[in-house]
Design brief:
Strand order of the largest sheet: 4-6-2-7-8
Distance between the termini: 25 Å
Structural class: alpha+beta
Radius of gyration: 19 Å
Oligomer: single chain
Number of domains: 2
Helix content: 10-25%
């Protein structure tokens, strides 16, 4: 199997705001955060003011589409695409519905991958602008942006500073040493799909999960970084040998889509899942997935898991 890189163009940033008008956080507020961020990013980056990005002559070079609506290629060796993964993930506060009053602190994280890292200043400005308009019925003022590392949070920007402080924009993982058991804890719903149907607790297996994880990361690297030399067939064969046991259960979740003007049901699996005798290569993808999430609606925070051991 081709060696999997240990260093990837990836960073997690913590955004800290002070609430200036009461905010009502819904369950899994990442959907609302993403919508507000997207609107602010488009207002900031759009040059033509066209209503439809798909017909814009600047679509292939626009900072907004490259981050928020990555254009799918006309042709691809693996398959045809209607959508490709976007290079960000919003990790909103956990804990369900919550009222935040004036002066309260609001924290959440944004994970950026590949080329999106070079647009950090624009992304920070757009997020700052989004919360100055309205998010979850309220407003907030940006206080600081931190780079999250294993050593602690490193402040890289405060409003009024001339620029973002230079910092490392890559993640280097520790090399695995042989097969290992890995226990994951899904803290937001995992939505894996097969022929239009979302897997439930009774039919979830390691293969579709690991396949989706490898595919997501491989496509992110291809469209937003350096094209990786991944042997997908060998990785799939390795995934076939992984066994598991789980304490996953279905959790319902409903959100309202302002774009589609209707309520949407986005339930999925939460809880713990132990994968047995995971090969070294797939352990690397599991580590990356703890940053980049997996499954449908990953960009606004679903499919988020922690590796317990």
């Amino acid at each position: 199997m081709t060696d999997i890189p240990l260093t990837w163009p990836l960073a997690r940033y913590k955004f800290v705001f002070a609430v200036t008008s009461p905010i009502e956080l819904p369950d899994y507020a990442g959907s609302a955060f993403r919508g507000a961020f997207g609107r602010a990013l488009r207002k900031t980056a759009c040059m033509t003011r066209m209503s439809d990005c798909s017909t814009c002559p600047l679509r292939s070079t626009c900072a907004y589409t490259s981050v928020f609506e990555t254009p799918a290629p006309a042709e691809h060796a693996l398959q045809s695409f209607s959508k490709v993964p976007n290079p960000y993930v919003i990790e909103a506060p956990l804990g369900g519905r919550k009222h935040l009053d004036v002066g309260d602190r609001l924290e959440f994280s944004v994970v950026l991958f590949g080329d999106a890292l070079q647009k950090l200043a624009l992304i920070v400005y757009a997020m700052q602008r989004a919360f100055s308009y309205e998010v979850c019925r309220g407003k907030a003022s940006l206080q600081c942006v931190y780079l999250e590392t294993e050593a602690g949070d490193e402040p890289i920007y405060e409003p009024g500073a001339e620029s973002i402080k230079p910092h490392a924009q890559q993640l280097t993982l520790t090399a695995p040493r042989g097969e290992a058991d890995k226990t994951l804890r899904f803290v937001t719903p995992l939505r894996l799909q097969n022929n239009g149907k979302i897997y439930g607790a009774k039919d979830i297996e390691p293969l579709p999960f690991l396949t989706a994880l490898v595919r997501r990361i491989g496509l992110l690297a291809e469209f937003h970084g350096d094209k990786p030399n991944l042997n997908y067939h060998a990785l799939r064969e390795a995934a076939l040998a992984v066994e598991s046991s789980h304490a996953l259960s279905w959790q319902n979740w409903k959100r309202y889509s302002s774009r589609q003007q209707k309520s949407m049901y986005l339930g999925g699996l939460v809880g713990t899942w132990t994968l047995s005798r995971v090969p070294e290569a797939l352990q690397i993808f599991l580590e990356l997935g703890s940053y980049l999430h997996v499954g449908k609606n990953a960009t606004f925070g679903l499919g988020r898991y922690e590796i317990l051991h």
